[in-house]
Amino acid sequence: MKKSILLALFVGCVIGAQAQPIKKMKMDQLLKMIDTSKTPLVVNFWATWCGPCIREIPWFEKAVKEYAGQKVKLILVSIDYPDDYAGIAAFAKKQGYTSQIIWLNETDPDVFCPKVDKSWKNTIPVTLMVNNKRKYRQFYNQQLPEPKLAEELRKLVE
């Protein structure tokens, strides 16, 4: 029994220690980062409570890895509520997410959504793909199934 408790504590400490830090950003900071990126970006807006978001992130991570040679980068932007911020890192670790995660430190989607794209209807998941070198910018106001994601990634790097 003691060994089981010690093992559980050890595993909990290791998992907690390995959880990536989640940087807080305001929308203007995020947009500046996107607009000045020298590499193609896939920016996925999600939340820990969003089932479709959680289902699509693993295939996003897998698909983007296939474009590592073209330096495509996936950024997961959490729009979780402020009270949930502290749990995002542990959630991401449990899910096995390896991409950079940013927490959007904003509370009014009526203000921040149109800054990303005027067609954003305050829903998630949504994805923005940007290749500044090619002046390519595409917004997807819906979940992207695996085959559609693969097709859109090809367009991003063409």
TrEMBL record:
Secretion signal, residue range per the UniProt entry: 1-19
Domain Thioredoxin: 9-158
Pfam families linked to this entry: AhpC-TSA
Matching CDD domains: TlpA_like_family
Keywords noted in UniProt: Signal
Protein name according to UniProt: Redoxin domain-containing protein
The species this protein was found in: Sediminibacterium roseum
UniProt lineage: Bacteria, Pseudomonadati, Bacteroidota, Chitinophagia, Chitinophagales
